[in-house]
Amino acid sequence: MTARTVAKAVLTTLVIAAALYLVYRLRDVVILVGMAAFVAVALAPGVALLQRHRVPRALAILLVYVGLLGGAFGLGLVLVPPIVEGVETAVADAPAWVADIRDSEALRRYDERYHLTDHIRDQSDKLPRALDNAAGELETVTVGAFKRLFELITVLVIAFFLLLDAPRWIDALFRRLPLEHERRARGVAQEMASVVGGYVVGSFAIAALAGLFSFLMMKLLGLPFAVPLAVLMAFTALIPLIGSAIGATPIALVAALHSFPEALVVWVVAFVLYQQLESHVLGPYVYKRTLRLHPLLAIVSVLAGASLMGILGALLAIPIAAMIQILIREYVRLAPPRPEPAAPATEAA
């Protein structure tokens, strides 16, 4: 090994280390750009659909944005009033829940053992004061909300320019490759874009179905707070693998307080049946057909993403793992086969 080779290896290592350190220092910016790229890939099919109707690309992107903002605004107009009304009702009915627990013979035994009503009464008495104290934290909440709003606007702006110019950049990059490599690179890029688009559409469809199922079941059982709990169920269902179970827990608590054990048993049975449908029909369609991702890799990726970036990491973990799997599969497919070992001279004789 020559001194030039050693110097080149050391220089390459230093450059890689410096690049990784720079990425670490700019990790907030990198996360925003990564989120913008994810949004751009997810919205690309809608933009392409409008372009097929001879709509200019910039106008198509703006129309998709307007559609998203209009849908979010309309959903807020429909959902916010019932949610506010449900919270106000919960505050007013908290003392009555304590009396219901004392009237239930089944729950009374647990109350006498664990003193549930004393704890609930204490918390319900503190609830109005807690709400007053929460109003005093409005400044902090407002600053946080403006920060998140600024990040959202930044992500949308970056995604707009990525949707507008990234196809030309990628096309110019692919054209610099040899013809055979260009075809393979375009195929891999198209497959990765399909993975992200299919995951986004499938995840939102599953979340909407989970919210609708929860709302109908709560209405059928006569449970209160159907709208806010169904919205919570839909949002938590976006978290892969465990989101539905998280959203079902507060509904089970409300069912137990409303009618124990009838409503609780019916809800648990219905939710278990829904989980079987989601696990064996809906989930495989999203994660197997669109992502072709092994279940073990999906679980590990969700755990890793959640530990690194919380809920956002859990949401992005599966499509990122699927794209990494595509790259690894393509590398393995293109790797040259290992040469066969030479046969001994005696065997050849």
Give an overview in words.
There is one protein chain. Helix content is about 90%, strand content about 0%. The protein is built from 12 helices and no strands. The chain has helices spanning about 5-25, 25-50, 55-105, 105-115, 115-135, 140-175, 180-220, 225-235, 245-260, 260-290, 295-335, 345-349. With about 350 residues, the chain is mainly alpha-helical. The longest helix has about 45 residues, at about 55-105. The protein folds into 2 domains: about 25-130 and about 145-175, no CATH class; about 180-335.
How many structural domains does the protein architecture include?
2
Percent helix, as a range, is: over 70%
Strand content: under 5%
- Average pLDDT value? 76
Instruction: Catalogue the unreliable spans.
Output: 134-139
Task: State the secondary-structure class.
Answer: mainly alpha
State Rg.
27 Å
Q: What best-fitting shape do the alpha-carbon axes yield?
A: elongated
Largest sheet: none
Number of contiguous helices? 12
SSE pattern: HHHHHHHHHHHH
The count of DSSP E runs of length 2 or more, i.e. the number of strands, is 0
Amino- and carboxy-terminal Cα gap: 39 Å
